[in-house]
């Protein structure tokens, strides 16, 4: 899996798709791809946060989070450390975009917020996509 991290920060005001968890006015959601989309590889993922601030990992900012894209694994329970491997992609630079090389077929993606030390927070969204050959 080859990964290219973009530097754009996307803030999109919208409600959760219903797949994720929203606490108060805070949420994390996919801007692209949308649930059920058929896409080509590399898959460009754009995330959004509402009521939280995207910051680099390790930042000590109140309500500061960074995003993770989990590929074909379940979201990490809140409070646990999000692993760093080829299925748990850390956008530790504070970006909201990443391009991911995926094999053709169906894939589940979880977009999950993490705290400064990569601890899973209860803000996430899940989509299922089809990568065309």
Amount of beta strand: 35-45%
**Rg calculated over all Cα atoms:** 13 Å
Number of helices: 0
Major beta sheet summary: 6 strands, mixed
End-to-end CA span: 16 Å
* Cα shape: globular
Could you list the spans in which at least 5 consecutive residues all have pLDDT below 50? 2-22
Approximate helicity band: under 10%
DSSP E strands, number: 10
Brief descriptors of the model:
mainly beta; globular; 133 residues; 6-stranded mixed β-sheet; 4-stranded antiparallel β-sheet
Description:
This protein is mainly beta. The chain is built from no helices and ten strands. It has strands spanning 3-5, 27-32, 38-39, 43-50, 53-54, 64-71, 88-91, 97-100, 105-114, 120-131. Strands 3, 5, 6, 7, 9 and 10 form a six-stranded mixed sheet that branches. The protein has a four-stranded antiparallel sheet with strand order 1-8-4-2, with no helix packed on it. It is globular and about 45 Å long. It starts with a strand and ends with a strand. Residues 2-22 have low confidence and may be disordered.
Give a quick summary of the entry.
By secondary structure, the protein is mainly beta. It has strands spanning 3-5, 27-32, 38-39, 43-50, 53-54, 64-71, 88-91, 97-100, 105-114, 120-131.
């Amino acid at each position: 899996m080859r990964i290219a991290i973009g530097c754009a920060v996307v803030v999109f005001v919208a409600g959760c798709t219903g797949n994720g968890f929203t606490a108060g006015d805070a949420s994390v959601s996919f801007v692209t791809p949308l649930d059920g989309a058929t896409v080509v590889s590399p898959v460009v993922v754009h995330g959004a946060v509402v009521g939280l601030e995207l910051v680099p990992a390790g930042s000590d900012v109140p309500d500061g989070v960074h995003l993770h894209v989990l590929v074909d694994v379940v979201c990490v329970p809140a409070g646990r450390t999000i692993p760093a491997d080829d299925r748990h992609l850390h956008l530790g630079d504070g970006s909201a975009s990443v391009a991911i090389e995926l094999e053709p077929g169906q894939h589940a993606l979880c977009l999950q917020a993490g705290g400064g030390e990569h601890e899973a927070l209860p803000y996430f969204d899940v989509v299922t996509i089809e990568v065309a050959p």
